[in-house]
């Protein structure tokens, strides 16, 4: 009965979003109410459980996601993203432009929510295409692969950060594991796969013809890279140093600075000065951009809140324990099972974020029941949530329309790239997890 109730609740969620076009937050709340009634939770307790679930999920994450969105907006608006792209292209040369674009997407994608990063980076892709005369998908797909991998694997990006919270993982350790898995995945899904797309014809819209920016309008290379990578450096360094023999006071300082919230706040403050104020950007313009960034990620905050409500219903009704015992007895590796659950929901719903968070609510008991490393489970669910993008995914249509592709070419390029990311990611997770 418990399993049927959980399946019915997830089915209601899928039906509301996919068929009814109900906003995900509302769909999550309705599904949570339905699950509570089917699982026999006392009526007077249901509103309280939903409130606790929303608060418990947003409490640790809201400031990280908001600061990350503001930081990403700064990296894009200041010209740092374009400078990073230019520098990597010069470093790797014209022959290795796909590799440079992949690394640009990977670096810039860490603080940017995926859809925002997509829209901001597409003009940069066509700028490179225009100057290099290379095929658009050959240049563009590696960058989109970098954005996708950051979206699925690397906290403090909103999706993996939310999964870290769901599974009780460590954000710094997950970041290090994500880099370990993400870099080789990026090479395969980006530059290597792009070789098969060189002959795909793309005629881009005229409004993407770039206007050349002078060097004086861009920040320096060092400033751009240091600011863009500073949150990653602070969080990862604190995790590495936590294994060193440090004096108590030094350890406290390292832990404080390496906390994701503090790391992002410091990075935003430093970036606001070095990329903005020190280069003559008016403070009013910077603050307006930050306000726009917060509005852009309001939807993702609501999705995360709704997922927390559904998860709390499973916890308070005791369904999570029953589900954990059931899943633990299945003859499937826990990481593969987490990946499969996310994959099924991704195919049904389209949204990678919703797929990952919904899957996390289902398989979270599996982490406790099997003792599997929660950091690897974050990555496994993240990989599954990226699989098999098709016509119910906004990213699919963005790729099709921005690159002026046919449906067949969109499946051939975008859908295959996303599936390579999810598949190769799982293989590497299974290879590395026994050793770390």
UniProtKB/TrEMBL annotation:
It comes from the Bacteria. Pfam families: GntP_permease. Its main location: membrane. It is a multi-pass membrane protein. It is found in: Cell membrane. The chain crosses the membrane at residues 52-76, 97-130, 136-154, 175-197, 222-244, 256-277, 297-315, 336-364, 411-432. Belongs to the GntP permease family. This is Permease DsdX. The lineage of its organism: Bacteria, Pseudomonadati, Pseudomonadota, Gammaproteobacteria, Steroidobacterales.
């Amino acid at each position: 009965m418990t399993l049927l109730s959980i399946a019915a609740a997830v089915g209601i969620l899928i039906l509301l979003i996919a068929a009814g076009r109900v906003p995900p937050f509302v769909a999550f709340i309705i599904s949570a109410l339905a699950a509570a009634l089917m699982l026999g939770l006392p009526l007077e307790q249901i509103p309280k459980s939903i409130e606790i679930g929303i608060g418990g999920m947003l409490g640790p994450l809201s400031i990280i996601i908001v600061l990350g969105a503001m930081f990403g907006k700064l990296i894009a608006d200041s010209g740092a993203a374009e400078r990073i792209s230019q520098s990597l292209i010069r470093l790797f040369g014209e022959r290795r432009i796909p590799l440079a674009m992949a690394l640009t997407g990977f670096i810039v994608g860490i603080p940017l929510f995926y859809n925002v990063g997509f829209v901001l980076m597409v003009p940069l892709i066509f700028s490179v295409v225009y100057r290099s005369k290379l095929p658009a998908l050959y240049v563009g797909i590696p960058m989109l692969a970098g954005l996708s991998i950051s979206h699925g694997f690397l906290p403090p990006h909103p999706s993996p950060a939310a999964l870290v919270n769901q599974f009780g993982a460590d954000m710094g350790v997950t970041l290090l594991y994500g880099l370990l898995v993400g870099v080789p995945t990026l090479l395969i899904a980006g530059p290597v796969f792009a070789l098969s797309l060189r002959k795909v014809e793309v005629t881009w819209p005229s409004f993407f013809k770039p206007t050349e920016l002078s060097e004086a309008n861009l920040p320096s290379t060092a400033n751009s890279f240091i600011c863009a990578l500073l949150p990653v450096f602070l969080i990862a360094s604190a995790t590495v140093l936590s294994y060193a023999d440090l004096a108590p006071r030094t350890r406290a300082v390292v832990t404080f600075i390496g906390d994701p919230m503090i790391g992002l706040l410091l990075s935003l403050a430093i970036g606001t000065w070095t990329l903005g104020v020190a280069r003559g950007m008016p403070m009013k313009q910077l603050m307006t951009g930050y306000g726009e960034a917060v509005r852009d990620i309001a939807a993702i905050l609501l999705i995360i809140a709704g997922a927390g409500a559904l998860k709390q219903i499973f916890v308070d009704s005791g369904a999570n324990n029953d589900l954990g015992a059931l899943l633990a007895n299945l003859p499937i590796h826990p990481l593969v099972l987490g990946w499969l659950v996310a994959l099924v929901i991704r195919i049904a719903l389209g949204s990678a974020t919703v797929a990952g968070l919904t899957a996390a609510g289902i398989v979270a008991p599996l982490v406790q029941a099997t003792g599997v490393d929660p950091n690897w489970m974050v990555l496994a669910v993240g990989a599954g949530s990226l699989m098999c993008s098709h016509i119910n995914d906004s990213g699919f249509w963005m790729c099709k329309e921005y690159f002026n592709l046919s449906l067949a070419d969109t499946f051939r390029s975008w859908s295959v790239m996303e599936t390579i990311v999810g598949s190769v990611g799982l293989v590497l997770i299974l290879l590395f997890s026994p050793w770390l």
